[in-house]
Each structure stands twice: as C-alpha cells, then as structure tokens.
Write a structure and sequence with these properties.
mainly alpha; 95 residues
C-alpha cells in the first residue's frame, strides 16, 4: 500500500529543500518556528483583542488565524527537511 509519505517529490521541490538545507536551515529550525508561530498566534489574538477594544473581535480573530496558518507550513517544511536529512542523497526517488 502506498501512502502520502511514499509519494514522489518533484524535482523543483527537491531543489528548494536542498538549497534551504545548504543555507543552514534544518528540520529542528522549522519545527521551532512552527511551535513559535502557534504561540505568536495566541499572543497576537490576545493583544489585538485587548488593545483594540473599539475594534470588533473579528479583527483579533483574523490576526490570530493569519499567524496560525504559518504553523502547518513550517511543520511541512520541517518534515521535508527531515526527510532530506535522513536521505542525504536527496529527495527524489529513483526507480
């Protein structure tokens, strides 16, 4: 049975991940950024809701959601980097 984890990666994606890895970005950095963005999402929501009492709660919710959308991106980037790190030959599957 083939899972999403076994799905082939395009050459463009492999090049991006390789370049990020060569620039010094590691999976741990992306995971930390994801966890940090969750905290920043909560803080931005709480701060916006508290400081902008004249504004509606909708604005605070939008800020929290905007920053909260970063977490899945960073987690996905962390997974791609972790996969690259575990297969130092690269992401592309051959054969």
């Amino acid at each position: 049975m083939k899972t999403d984890v076994d799905a082939p990666v395009t050459e463009e994606t492999a090049v991006i991940i390789k370049k990020l890895h060569e620039a010094g970005l590691r999976s741990e950095h992306a995971y930390c950024a994801a966890l940090g963005s969750i905290g920043i999402s909560f803080l931005s929501w709480a701060t916006s809701a508290k400081l902008e009492k004249s504004a509606e709660v909708d604005r605070a919710d939008r800020w929290g959601i905007f920053v909260g959308e970063w977490a899945p991106t960073f987690f996905g980037l962390g997974l791609a980097l972790a996969h690259y790190e575990s297969h130092q030959t690269g992401l592309l599957r051959r054969g």
